[in-house]
Amino acid sequence: MRSNIEIADIIQKFGKQYIQKHHPSAEKMKVLFNIMQCRTSALGGHEERCDVCPEVRYSYNSCGNRHCPKCLATKQAVWIEKLMEQTLPIQHYHLIFTVPHELNAICLFNRRMYYKALFSATWQTLHSFGYTHYGVETGAVCVLHSWGQNLTLHPHIHCLVPAAGYTLNGNWKQIGQQKKYLYPIHQLSDAFQGKLLDRLKRALMKLDIYPEFDAYIQAAYKKRWVVHCEPSMASADHVIRYLGQYTHRVAICNDRLLEMTDTHVTFIAKDYRDNAQKKPVRLPGVEFLHRFCQHILPKRFVKIRRYGIYNHTIKRNLELQFEPQVSKVEKILTDKKEDETTQEQIKRLTGFDIGKCPKCKNGRMHIVSELPRIRSPGRAIRLLLHAFLQ
Question: Counting Cβ atoms within 10 Å, is residue 370 exposed (0-12), middle (13-18) or buried (19+)?
Answer without folding.
Answer: exposed
